[in-house]
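Model the whole thing, not chain by chain.
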Amino acid sequence: MSGASPGLVVGGVSRSAFAAPALIVLVVLLQVTVMPYLQIGDGVPDLVAPAVVAIGLLRGPLGGAVAGFGAGLLVELAAPIGTLGVYALLYLAAGAVAGHYHERPEATRPLAAIIISVAAAGAVGLGYAAVQALLGTTLGAAELVGAVILPTMALTALLAPPVLLVARRLMGPSTSEPGVRA
Amino acid sequence: MGTQTRPGPFRRRTNVRRIGIAGLVIVCLALFTLYFRESASGPLHGVQDATGAAVAPLQEGASRAVAPLQDGWNWLSETRDARNRAADLEAENAELRSQIIAAQSAAERAQSDAGLASAGSAYATDYDRLVADVIGLSPTNWYSTGKLSVGRDDGAVVNSPVIAPAEDGSALVGVITTSQGGSSVVQFITDSRTRVGATVLGAGNPPGILRATTSGQLSLDGVPREFAVEEGQVAVTAGFSDIPLPSVYPPGIAIGQVSGVGGQEADIEQTIQVSPFVDPRTLRTVVVLAPASPKAKRRATG
C-alpha cells in the first residue's frame, strides 16, 4: 500500500476484473470462428496465446494461469476439438510461465511480449501434439513442425501485436509498475 | 530494511499463487480424465455440445463473412497451383522429348556406325579410311560445304574423296577442298562448284561430267546420245575427268540414281538427271578416303 494511490489500485483491479474475461471471450470467439480460415499449411494463428501471455505479463503468474485455464477451457467447449482440459492445462502453463516475467522490466517491451507469445503458441501446439500422441494419433515430427507448428508460430507472430496492444489498452498498466497493485 | 518487513505477506502471496495454480492444474487433469472416462452422453460432453451449439451461429456467420475472402484465396492458390503444375508438366515434356531425341539419335548413330564400318572397304588398298564427324555445315544454300573433324594431321589431304553409308553400300558425298591440322572442309557434290567425272552402269560406260543443279539434284552432262541411258540406272565415278587428267575420285564409287533422261533429238548429248544416294545436308558422319598408295596420292595431287 505504501505509496500507492487508492484510486489507481481500485481502478486497476476493477478494470482487470472485467477486461480480462472480456478479452478472453473475444479472442476465443475469434479463434474458433475466424482463425480456422486463416490457415497456412496446417497451421492456424493462435490468438489465445498472445492474450494469455499479455494477461500473464500484466497481472502475474496467477492471473496468467487463471486466464489461460479459462481461455483453454472455452476453446475446448466452443470448438469441435474432442478433448477437455488439455488446452486449459496448456494455456494455463503458458499464462503462468509468462507471469513469471511479470516483474521484469524487459517484459514490458513489445518485442519481448511478441516473442513470448510466439513461443507460447509453439509450446501449446507441441504440447497438444504430445497429448494426441498419447491418445494414439501420431504425426511425423518433420510434418508436425514443418506443416503445423512453424506456420502456426509465423501466423501468430503476425497477429500477436494487435492482440497485445488491445490487451494492454483493456487491462491498463502492469501491476508490477509503481503505484499499481493486483 | 524493507526486505525484513516483506517476507510474511510476500510468502503468503506466493503460496496463494502456487496453491491456485496447482488447483487449476488438478481441475484440468480431472476434467481431462472425466471427459475420457465418461460416455458421449455424459455431462461434460453435454456441456461441450451445448457450448458448441451456442457458438455455432457465430461460427456460421464468420464462415459466411470470410467465404468470399476464402474463395478469393482458394482461387489464387489454385491458379498458382495450376501454373506450377503446367510448368512441371512442361519441364517433364521437355525431359521426355530430350530422352526421345537421345534415343533416336543413338539408334541413328548405331545404324550409321554399322554403315561406316563397311563404307569404302573396297578402296582399302589405295586409301586409308578416316571416319569423321560433320562438325559444321554451310549456313547458306548457295554453297554446300561442311566441316569435318579430321584434318591434315589425320591424313585427310586436299582432294581426298569423301563417302558416306548409303542404302546399298556407300556413296560419294564430296571432296576435301581445305585441310588444316585437325579439321577439314568438304565440298559436297551438291555444291554448284563441284565437278565429278562419272558414268552410268549398264549403259556402255558413257563418259560424263556430273554437276549440281538445283535443290540437291545432279545433272550428268556430256553423255553422247548413242549411249542408251535409262531411269533407275546407277551413276558412279568414272575415274577420269573432263580434262585429260585422272580424276581425284577413284572409279566405281556410287553417286546416285538416274531419275530422268532428256534433251532434243537434234542434240548430240543427253541431259541426264541424277538423284544422289546421300543428301549431304543430313550427314552427321562420313568417311574420308585418305590417299595411301602412290597411285591414290597421284590422283589427289592431279
